[in-house]
Amino acid sequence: MEIRPLSHDDMDRLSDFIIDAYESFPQAMWFGSKPSRESLERIFYNKMRGIAERMVSDFVALQGGLVLGECEIVKTGWDSGIVGMVVRKEFLRTRIGTKLLDAASSYAEEIGMRKLRVEVSSDNEGAIKFFIVNGFAPIRKMKMDKEGIERTVVVLEKKVR
After folding, report:
1. Which domain holds residue 40?
2. Mean per-residue pLDDT over the chain, rounded
């Protein structure tokens, strides 16, 4: 297994991965319905622009050309970032998530981030436990509405330096 920064060459594989991940974890995604390749093209364009501008840190775990997981950190302020992560269901509890988070967090620190935040659906107990084990602390619970989807989320935060 290889963990490395996301590249343009990964986009088709990442599209397939996100579409598959939606089937397994719809509660973790903010799409109103199953995403299509077309709907992901714009998201990926903005993602690659953010990487080029050093506003986004995005790492993928690959094995034999298959995306096993992805971790993205988007810079949201002069010193903070928000984490997004997904790992294939069949590869949960194999430390892939921790390795992805470590790689993305190291890069986030390099580009000046001091703290990271993640918003996890309150019914996603496995993800909440994962982030707590990896040094995040719950700071609040709140209702969020994004693109017509309302959820209660647990906000967790971690200092990276």
Report:
1. 2-114
2. 83
